C-alpha cells in the first residue's frame, strides 16, 4: 500500500475509479440492447483517432474522442436506415478502424511499439493531471446522462418500437447512446486499453445480473462491481507488477464467476414464494 503515497499512483487510482463507475452505467444499456461488442468496434476506430493525433502532433485523446464520435454516429445512422445489418456495420467498424490506426501510427514520427501499446493495453501510471481532468469531466458527463435519461433509455433498449409509439425521440436517444459509448471508450483507453475497454462495460453488468432481477438494481450493483474491480486492479497491479488494465479485467471476470456461483446457490436455497419485482421504469398513460 506504500505505492499509493506516490502521486502517479493516486492519479492512476482516481482515473480507474472514474471509469469503473461510468463504464458499467453505460454498459447496462448496451447489454440490454444486445450490443455488448460495440465497445470493441469503437475502440478500433479510436485507434485511428490516436493515429491522427500522433501524425498531426495533437492530443491523441482529443482526436480519438472526435474520430470515435464520428464513427459511432455513422454506424448508428447506417443501422437505422436498415441497408446494412447491425453486425455487418460493426464488422466494418472493426476492420476499418484497426487498419486506419495501424497505418496512421506507422506514418507518424512517434511510430514506436511503446506508443502504440500504451493505447492498446492502457498506461495508467503515465496519466498526467490534465489527463485526469479530461477523464473526470467526460466520465461525469457520461454518468449524469445515463442516470438522468434512464427511463427513456431503458424503454429504448428494451423495445425500440415501444419507445417510438410512446412518443420518445428514438433517433436522439440512439445518437446519445452512440456518442456516450464513443466517449467512454476513449477515456477508458488509458485505464484498460482499447482492446479491453469493452470488458469493463460488459463484465460488471453480467456479474450483477446473476444477483439482481430489476434494471435499477442491476445498474447499481454493476457500478459497485466496476468501481471495486478498477480500484483493486490498480492496487494489485502495483503490488505484483502487472498491467493495471488486464488485472482489472481479470478481477471483474473473477467477480462474475463468484456471483454466478452465489446466484446458483441462492436460487437453489430460496423459498417457494415469488420474489420481489421492481416497479416498471416506464409506464404509458392513457
What's the short story on this structure?
The chain has 286 residues and is an all-alpha fold. Helices cover 76% and strands 0% of the residues.
What does this structure look like?
- There is one protein chain.
- The chain has 286 residues and is an all-alpha fold.
- Helix content is 76%, strand content 0%.
- α2 (38-56) packs across α3, α2 (38-56) runs antiparallel to α10 and α11 (215-240) crosses α12 (244-269).
- The longest helix has 26 residues, at 7-32.
Throw out a few tags for this protein.
mainly alpha; globular; 286 residues
Computed CA radius of gyration, to the nearest angstrom: 19 Å
What's the overall geometry?
Answer: globular
Give the H and E element order: HHHHHHHHHHHH
Estimate the mean pLDDT confidence.
80
| Sheet of most strands | none
Structural class: mainly alpha
Q: What is the distance, rounded to the nearest whole angstrom, between the alpha carbons of the first and last residues?
A: 58 Å
Q: Helical element count?
A: 12
Helix amount? over 70%
Indicate the proportion of strand residues: under 5%
Low-confidence stretches are none
Number of strands: 0
What is the topology?
Blueprint: H1 7-32, H2 38-56, H3 60-81, H4 86-107, H5 113-120, H6 129-148, H7 150-158, H8 160-165, H9 170-188, H10 197-209, H11 215-240, H12 244-269
Helix pairs in contact: 1-6, 1-9, 1-10, 1-11, 2-3, 2-4, 2-9, 2-10, 3-4, 3-9, 6-9, 10-11, 10-12, 11-12
